[in-house]
Amino acid sequence: MPTALTKESEVDVLIIGAGPAGLMCGMALARAGVDVRIIDQRPARVSAGHADGIQPRIVEVFQSYGFADRLFQEAVQVHMAAFYNPGPNGGIERTGRAPDVTAPTARWAFEMALHQGGIEQIFLDSMASNGVEVERPIIPTAIELSGDEPTLQDPRSHPVKITLKHLEAPGGSLDTEIVHAKFLVGCDGAHSWVRRQFGITMEGEQTDYIWGVLDLIPDTDFPDIRNRCAVHSHNGSCMIIPREGDLVRLYIQLADKDVLDSKGRVDKSKMGAEKIMEVANKSLYPYKISTSHPIDWWTLYIIGQRVSNKYSVHERVLIAGDACHTHSPKAGQGMNASMNDTHNLAWKLAYVLRGWADISLLKTYELERRKYAQDLIDFDKKFAALFSGKPRTKDDGDGVSHEEFLEAFQTFGLFTSGIGVHYQPSVIVDDKYQSYASKLIIGQRVLPHMFIRAADSQPVQMHDLCPSDTRFKILVFTGNTTDMLQLKTVKGLADEMQKPEHFYRKFGHGNSSAVFEVLAISSADKMISNYTDVPPFFRSHWSKFLLDDTDMYNRTGGGGYDACGVDPHGAIVIVRPDGYVGTVAPLWDLGYLDNYFASFMTSSP
Amino acid sequence: MPTALTKESEVDVLIIGAGPAGLMCGMALARAGVDVRIIDQRPARVSAGHADGIQPRIVEVFQSYGFADRLFQEAVQVHMAAFYNPGPNGGIERTGRAPDVTAPTARWAFEMALHQGGIEQIFLDSMASNGVEVERPIIPTAIELSGDEPTLQDPRSHPVKITLKHLEAPGGSLDTEIVHAKFLVGCDGAHSWVRRQFGITMEGEQTDYIWGVLDLIPDTDFPDIRNRCAVHSHNGSCMIIPREGDLVRLYIQLADKDVLDSKGRVDKSKMGAEKIMEVANKSLYPYKISTSHPIDWWTLYIIGQRVSNKYSVHERVLIAGDACHTHSPKAGQGMNASMNDTHNLAWKLAYVLRGWADISLLKTYELERRKYAQDLIDFDKKFAALFSGKPRTKDDGDGVSHEEFLEAFQTFGLFTSGIGVHYQPSVIVDDKYQSYASKLIIGQRVLPHMFIRAADSQPVQMHDLCPSDTRFKILVFTGNTTDMLQLKTVKGLADEMQKPEHFYRKFGHGNSSAVFEVLAISSADKMISNYTDVPPFFRSHWSKFLLDDTDMYNRTGGGGYDACGVDPHGAIVIVRPDGYVGTVAPLWDLGYLDNYFASFMTSSP
């Protein structure tokens, strides 16, 4: 028990676990100016191996925080997938190639890979610039959530009491600390301590598939070693994923007897890197693979596919990442889903803590992210079964044919890329007026598209106009502002939007431009449009008024109204702080938008 | 006179002057591992104003050194030009808009702008990473070039003796230093001390045009304030160039009487920033311009257009930048030409110092760069006359019409962008076999084009394959390597190229891959090509073998053989270390390439 001398303190958000989910959360909250601490039991970040697939959507998310450039510098890009199947001569042969990801609207339509430590470092660097560092090694030893209903509903209360133990402290009372937190986010992995303290259960079961994984610099005559490969052979399945530099990751299917001990648990002493290489060579025959370098990293695992039955306790203790869902790593989904969990959560926490939104906004976190995790599990089961199943051969007509595998690979491509994620209707997803911007799907992330700035014709990417800065983006598609009739409508709209009874000022908490970013996009011709034509409200800075036109060399831009399905007479598109389309409205129904924001935001005092 | 105690030292290259020309030189030589020192008389780099236009070619050059990203972060982009002329009501009106630069093949087809200090800092940061810093404030006080012909021909000799004075030294013998240099590069500006020591004269004369320049953050209703504007008014001419952030630069034409003293020299006391703003408002009427911020920088100048009669003394003392040519700043040319001078010179100096090339290679510096400077002067005269001349109006039919001005603006666009620079035939520019790659113009910079890597289908830009790393790039367009007959030719070529009698080993100085970078580009289809098909010589690393094909989403790449005019049966294209096409050869005439390199390179011992 802590003594009276035990250090006690308060914090708005305490994050337990500094893996990708915890770090995304810590980075986003630190950047939002939230009082946040993040602890981890490991003495240092991981240095090699572990999860590494980076899907197109998470690259977009990284870009929204301003550090996709780090990925482009450090990560490898994976563009092509190749498929190998048993050939006539006892070895494998290539049956086809295809794009590695199926995501036609992705801003970057390829997969990337970087070891987990590299990804963590990007977050650590960003957090450090906001003065937040991971405190480690620290473990939580006790947790208590208490308070009556009004207390739990009051975002200013500190109902979570956590006892922490500093593992490298000098001992005595100094090694123990009590923290009173407004919110606790458990990002403490598949064996989550936080989850177990609250009796949250994982649903689903382990499968029988056992895999060896190793990262190496290969010497090989295999012609697709720099592509993602799915290999079905007479001698088992394997998967190849290129890694940064000259590294390659191999996933090798193993037999139970080679890996499990008498109690059915993985016994690493039974199977080493060398044995895995032997199996790999059997699978890849007639090609050969070896290495003249030390093995970078290796492990064994059994695929577990589970999702927790809930994601939060009274919206005060929340869990994220592997703590609430685990997946087969072969589809490269686990880490991406984990980071997207806390990307979804962070702005909501910030809004509640600032007093801008009701605490019930946090219910949308579980609603949106648990559904996705369940879909992911369903996909994973199908994909893992297909991938681990026996290939169809002349002798075995019941096996998996190449066509079945390829179809699954491509059908689920949009889903695995993260691009197709679609959040269901809620207080923050309302699709009443979808038809006014028919291709900016409400509940999906906003499309990437190039526009040009009216004042200087510089091309700008719609995604870069919607950074993760916790502001709602009010994209006002104005129609053609060189049409005097339309311009009159636009001027009237500007006057109306600035009135105190409408959302911009009503929910602006005295500083509307900190809550809302207003951007106007006209369909006018760049050669005759003047940025000075539109009302100052739609060009609070000269860079905020855009045109749907090509750049001066017709290399990019144009066609945005069509690509977004926007009505020629305009529409207002509300992009959530996490980049998802929240709702759409016609220019003439500001009242609808007032109601949209009133459903979860608090009005200015 | 220095005493016996005066510090004396040797250096391979001493650069005098740390403006853009000197810094480009110092950066490139430091990166090439050359023993280099750079001195400047100013105590610190400039902090605001001065030259700032960055043309498309110099952006490509910056990219070749790996720091174009700094420009994209810090500089403003200028995409559109607008033209204003006298309107019917006594004020100006817009007569048209056009792309700001005419350079269809530019990798980035727009102008950029950044204050000179920002550009200098990019070089300073790069040099610092190679352990070289500008020594300042130091001035040269004496220079002597001595030695007989054999001494001057021997690149190991130190025939240049320079006496330096350290302005902030404690005094006495410590403030003086004698440096013996193999080469001296004078980048000491329009009033070059180096140039005058050797009696090199400037040709050309000053014109009568006098301009006021100021950088400010404007408050204005002028609709093209973020575009480059050429304004002819009833009340004089002015030019507007957007700057980084919200800054704008104004060039305002002034009358002699307002600026000159009784001796015809510029008298800054006669015309201040406020008076220039008054003139600007007259020119821009009916639009208004003012500022609520301090003026960032301002100056007055008379346009001088001159070029020196020679660029070197025995190829041991060389001058570059404003020291050998000065231009009207309105076309944004001076700084760009200066940096391109030393970009042209640096690799040649490195080759001579390494013993890889004969000292006569340095003659091509004057040959190539003086011709360009002369052409630039000719252009500048025409442009300045057009720009400073009276506009054509109803009352003055002899003035410059908008059509005349626009035509000049566009005709010279390719030239002012730096993209159209074409070096004449010399030992390093040989166009005998131009027809084998008819659109990679020998003597011009290599075209930008996207290819994909055969091993992983990742798109790569040809320019990024040709960095400024002092190596000659041997681009082997192999034809279709999935055609067995063609593959046989390619295998034969690989065998032949590695023989000691051919250039790759003959001029490789024991480490051919440090002198030559071999890249192979096949016209094979990505879906069936194996990178392992081609001989190892053409894939020394898996990333070095490329395909002329689209990426997996058909977003980029493909059509490269056509775009480069390459014969379907292949060609070898030699790209000089500075990115210019040196020569082209058919696959069957290696002997021609041996002769090309033999004409300026020394063979391995």
TrEMBL record, chains A, B:
InterPro entries: FAD-bd (IPR002938), FAD/NAD-bd_sf (IPR036188), Phe_hydrox_C_dim_dom (IPR012941), PHOX_C_sf (IPR038220), RIFMO-like (IPR050641), Thioredoxin-like_sf (IPR036249). Belongs to the PheA/TfdB FAD monooxygenase family. Keywords: FAD, Flavoprotein, Oxidoreductase. Transmembrane segments: none annotated. Residues 10-379 form the FAD-binding domain. It holds the Pfam family FAD_binding_3. GO terms for molecular function: FAD binding; oxidoreductase activity, acting on paired donors, with incorporation or reduction of molecular oxygen, NAD(P)H as one donor, and incorporation of one atom of oxygen. It comes from Daedalea quercina L-15889. It comes from the Eukaryota. This is FAD binding domain-containing protein.
